[in-house]
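Bug #77: duplicate submission created two jobs. Keeping one. Sequence:
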Amino acid sequence: MVTPRTEFGLFIPNRGIPLGTLPMQEYLALAEVADRSEILDSLWVGDSIVSKPRLESVALLSALAVKTRRVKLGVACMATFVQRHPLLFGLQWASLDIISGGRSILAACMGYPADQIEHAARELDAMGVRTEDRPARLIEHIKILRRLWTGEETSYRGRFYNLDRVTLDVKPVQQPYPIWIASNPQVRRIGEQGLERALRRVARHADGWMTTVLPPEEFVKRWARVQAMAREEGRALDPRATILIYNLTVNPNRDAAYDETCRFLADYYRRELPSEMVRVWCEWGTADQCAETMQRYVDTGCGAIVVRMCSWDQRGQIKKFVDEVLPRVKRRALAA
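Kept job's structure:
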């Protein structure tokens, strides 16, 4: 029996332009590098409005779609999903799917709560969204998109959105269009009941699960819970419908690699991340060390791993990832 392989994606940090570290032409060039690699399966960008300033995700992906032919395109994750009106977003995302020839991947997300990161409250307030309404808005938005993207006349009455006999004639190439939910609940913040609600939301409403900042053993446990919940809901999720976001810095000098990782993350998030979070979320060091850690996630059966290189030398790090790390991971898989 042939075991389905884990796919690998590349996250390009679209905060580079407002931070002055990556020009626009470099994004287009990196997308072409990924598309030609034949070892990468997808290309990803981030999403926010003012909490973490960056190029708008749908517009950027549309530009990258024109520069690529093979890789799938997604947002890791669509953090402003609950801040966008589903009718306008439905048109924008369907347009992206058409421009890309059916290569888009939508991972809907509630985004940060108002008290979790600096400027999150300001962004939510500016967009007229209460932090406590985010879960319900997420669900309504997904329900509306599923109806709109059939191309049939849609009426909807909800807490937040009302549509009266609306037809969206522009619909995605992919039919029915799969909608993933990105969810990474932190038990220390929301407790076990909050974790239960978050995983149940994925099981009830999503076609797949995106997550991050989880060690392999916890990833396995949570995915097993989601699948069990889905069965309780009368649904069957593809066992490999999972995407994990991870971070790497490849450098034979492990101390230098760690320093570069921390500097990049501090630049990116405008704050220093706790060392325990860096240890769970990142690997740094030689290509062998990075490949060994990635293999632990491959062994969980994760469907796709999306890697962000924690360095502003994106081109150099991507080359090391593609030429040195991934071939080692694939050789380990073949030898297993």
